[in-house]
Amino acid sequence: MSMTPPLRDTTAIPVLLRKSEILFRLKSDSLCRIAYTIVTEKFPTPMCHQTIGRESDGGMQAPAKKELAQAALVAEARPANRTRTKGAISAATKHWPEYLIEAACLGLFMVSACSFTVLLQHPASVIRQMLPSEFVRRLLTGVAMGVTAIALIYSPWGKQSGAHFNPSVTLAFFRLGKIDPWDACFYVVAQFIGGTLGVLSSRLIWGRAIAEQNVRYAATLPGAYGTRVAFVAEMVISFLMMTMVLNISNSTHIARFTGVIAGALVAAYVTLESPLSGMSMSPARSFASAAPGGLWNSLWIYFTAPPLGMLLAAQVYLWLWGKDAVFCAKLHHDNEKRCIFRCNYHTNLTKLTIKETT
Questions:
Q1: What is the mean pLDDT of residues 98-111?
Q2: What is the assigned CATH class of domain 96-357?
Q3: Count H helices, E strands: the chain?
Q4: Which of 7, 38, 144, 187 is most buried, with most CB under 10 Å away?
Q5: Is the pLDDT of residue 129 over 50?
Q6: 108: Cα within 13 Å, side-chain hemisphere
Q7: So where are the chain's domains?
Q8: Residues 341, 174 contacting (CB under 8 angstroms)
Q9: pTM of this prediction?
Q10: Which of 350, 325, 322, 328 is nearest to 341 (CA)?
């Protein structure tokens, strides 16, 4: 007598019945084997995706791996962001007086520039009517701006901040390794804000006269020779100015005259070079005049040529003398004001003095 279990209705088998139990009950019956095959194909045994093989690993674990990698990157970025934030806060809380000085000094320079431009270029000005020669008027404007620059550089404020008043100068000293990144950033921002406030203050002082065609907020604009000549001219005068600053300020006996020579160059540039480009050397100075008057057409020249010229001068100085030859980022360092830069003024000065005496 056959010991085969009686045939059961396969439609009554639960969906979640384990395959091993189905195999035990239906193994020896040919008809049930067909049902077994159908059940095993329709309801395969579930397996963990982590042990199924390459297909499961690539299809199901890849998103998890990607999420873990992204989480790791975020975790690594958080300390770096916190460090940057702490650096910015630390710089701002410790060095804010220097930032305000840079803003105030460039603002005063722009008030001087706007005022002398109105006095010497406005058609209704008595001084303009007394001086019909354009060259003489440029000469007087140059002398006035040169004296203004010298006064600011040697003022207590200029002695403390280093008397940059110009993003191009700040970037050049940053390239030379004399300024911390956050100090350079805040210096540039302060210069833009200060210069713009200076021009806006001049508008309050002079009213509509500052917007007159011959004045135009003392804007720096390309001359009759066009933008290419203006670009080259700005790059050349910026290169020469920074070359002078580096060579004079890093010498033993004549470092204290850096500000005087800088002022003399400003006067000469306004007199001789301004017909070519308007004589800027500073993105912040040009922006300050362009913003109130909406004079945006050629502003790119003054955002590119001056920084390029001064950075090139810094690079040439590095090639010739190296970083160690740069005393500091101050134009005038022979004073008792604090220095926030990476300064080795006194160390280098002592070394040079010993060399010269031996």
A1: 97
A2: mainly alpha
A3: 14, 0
A4: 187
A5: yes
A6: 18
A7: 1-54, 96-357
A8: no
A9: 0.76
A10: 328
